[in-house]
């Protein structure tokens, strides 16, 4: 017979378990309300480039290599800078929204536009001289010339990035991710038809690919702007303001820290493509690597969706002065993302004989992709957690610290190890990729340690100081 004391202990344990389950369920609901549309948006926007590669891969091996190199190296370089600079808004807008400083969101977005459009102008020579730059990086003249020409045609996309990333961070901080998802889905549908028509039906090849990509990215920008300027902003947009030009130095400083942190991550995978281009007879390895990076990119979009969600959750809770809620959100999203990563790994391994045919008709390329599938499977698991931890860093404003960690793990450990295994020990693309995975694993372990030992009460105080320092006190309602 159960004693009253044991009965009370059992009841207390059950109540605690139910409370924990309820908290996890509530946090998961908040998480998926942001992460679901954010993941869908990221997949749609990534698919714009991936679908273009799918169509162009059926035109020819050179065309596929050209688009892959241009997207991975030239556009990838610019994307990393622009996305990174825009990510400062995740910290500032998220914490301002959590702290009730709604009017400052529009000012922050305008400041970011100024910085990103200026940066886009600075990056124009990178596109113009990309054929020569790609040859200096060691690519064959045939691939470098074709990829370089395609990069020049992609200049309009660069300025679309400058407008788009601040808009998305502005909407994301207010949890208005559904409008981003709807706009992206509509544009993706248009892009599929337009790409098929221009690339395959009318036979415009690379020119058709460039036209469809540029037009699709600008349609995304215009669709979101219509929502903000004409339809609904809930007080976050009050029109253009001269405040956008005030305290630009402090804003640039945080933007640069964000850019360096994220660029080092984006460029790391870009270097993988470049190093593969240095192998003997590089066309097949480059095509195989581009297919693997395409699949990895789709999986990474899930990570980026969780990155956005946890960045919003952490920044909002810190801005609102809720340290325990911020910490609990990190725990829930980490477990959720890792579970999805395991599923993605299983899909890669079970479909390794089939998915390459989506991108190419070449049996040589297909066989090379099959060899790389195991490394791809490991990468998708790591990429399920690593973006989440980076999102925590952005939400809390740790960009400068993470930048130093990325330099050490990626470029002092991972890249030299990859070069050593790939070229010195003649392991080829498997060695290059394997060594670089080691750098990602090391960085992820360090981030896990940092997040585990974070003093969240201290982070709340820092969030309040940041709002006062960069104009939050002038934007209260």
Automatic annotation (TrEMBL):
Bilayer topology: Multi-pass membrane protein
What high-level taxonomic lineage is stated for the organism? Eukaryota, Viridiplantae, Streptophyta, Embryophyta, Tracheophyta
Q: Which NCBIfam families match?
A: matE (TIGR00797)
**UniProt cross-references to PANTHER family, sorted A to Z:** MULTIDRUG RESISTANCE PROTEIN (PTHR11206)
In which compartments does the protein localize?
Membrane
UniProt GO MF annotations = antiporter activity; xenobiotic transmembrane transporter activity
- Designated name of the protein: Protein DETOXIFICATION
Q: Which domain of life is it from?
A: Eukaryota
Describe the family membership recorded for this protein in Swiss-Prot or TrEMBL.
Belongs to the multi antimicrobial extrusion (MATE) (TC 2.A.66.1) family.
Pfam families per the UniProt record, alphabetical: MatE
Provide the Gene Ontology terms for cellular component. membrane
Native source species: Macleaya cordata (Five-seeded plume-poppy)
Q: Which InterPro entries match?
A: MATE_euk, MATE_fam
Where does this protein chiefly localize?
A: membrane
Q: Which residues cross the membrane?
A: 113-130, 150-167, 179-199, 205-230, 251-275, 295-316, 328-352, 372-394, 401-425, 431-456
Question: In this entry, which stretches build a coiled coil?
Answer: none
Please give the biological process terms from Gene Ontology that the record holds: xenobiotic detoxification by transmembrane export across the plasma membrane
Q: Which UniProt keywords apply?
A: Membrane, Transmembrane, Transmembrane helix
């Amino acid at each position: 017979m159960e004693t009253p004391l044991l009965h009370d202990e059992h009841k207390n344990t059950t109540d605690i378990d139910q409370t924990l389950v309820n908290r996890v369920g509530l946090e998961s609901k908040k998480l998926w309300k942001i992460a679901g549309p954010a993941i869908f948006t990221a997949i749609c926007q990534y698919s714009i480039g991936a679908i273009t590669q799918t169509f162009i891969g059926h035109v020819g091996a050179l065309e596929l290599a050209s688009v892959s190199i241009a997207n991975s190296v030239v556009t990838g370089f610019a994307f990393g800078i622009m996305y990174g600079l825009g990510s400062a808004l995740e910290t500032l807008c998220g914490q301002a929204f959590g702290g009730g400083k709604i009017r400052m969101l529009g000012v922050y977005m305008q400041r970011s536009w100024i910085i990103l459009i200026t940066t886009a102008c600075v990056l124009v020579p990178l596109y113009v001289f990309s054929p020569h730059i790609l040859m200096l990086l060691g690519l064959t003249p045939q691939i470098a010339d074709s990829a370089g020409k395609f990069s020049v045609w992609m200049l309009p996309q660069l300025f679309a990035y400058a407008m788009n990333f601040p808009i998305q961070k502005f909407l994301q901080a207010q949890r208005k991710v559904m409008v981003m998802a709807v706009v992206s889905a509509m544009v993706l549908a248009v892009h599929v038809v337009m790409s098929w028509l221009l690339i395959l039906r009318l036979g415009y090849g690379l020119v058709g690919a460039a036209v469809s990509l540029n037009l699709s990215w600008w349609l995304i920008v215009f669709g979101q702007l219509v929502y903000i300027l004409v339809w609904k902003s809930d007080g976050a947009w009050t029109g253009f303001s001269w405040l956008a030009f005030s305290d630009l130095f402090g804003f640039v400083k945080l933007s640069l820290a964000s850019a360096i942190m994220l660029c080092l991550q984006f460029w790391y995978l870009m270097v993988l493509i470049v190093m593969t281009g240095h192998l003997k007879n590089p066309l097949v390895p480059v095509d195989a690597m581009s297919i693997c990076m395409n699949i990895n990119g789709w999986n990474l979009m899930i990570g980026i969706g969780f990155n956005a969600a946890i960045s919003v959750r952490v920044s909002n809770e810190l801005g609102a002065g809720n340290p325990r809620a911020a910490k609990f959100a990190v725990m829930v999203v980490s477990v959720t993302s890792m579970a999805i990563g395991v599923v993605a790994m299983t899909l890669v391994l079970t479909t390794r004989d089939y998915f390459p045919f989506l991108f190419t008709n070449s049996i040589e390329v297909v066989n090379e992709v099959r060899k790389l599938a195991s490394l791809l499977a490991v990468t998708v698991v790591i990429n399920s957690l690593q973006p989440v931890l980076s999102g925590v860093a952005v939400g809390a404003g740790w960009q400068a610290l993470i930048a130093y960690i990325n330099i050490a793990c990626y470029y002092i450990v991972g890249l030299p190890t990859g070069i050593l295994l790939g070229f010195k020990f003649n392991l080829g693309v498997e060695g290059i990729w394997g060594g670089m995975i080691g750098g990602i694993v090391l960085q992820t372990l360090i981030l896990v340690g940092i997040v585990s030992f974070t003093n969240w009460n201290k982070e709340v105080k820092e969030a309040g100081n940041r709002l006062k320092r960069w104009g939050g006190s002038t934007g209260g309602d």
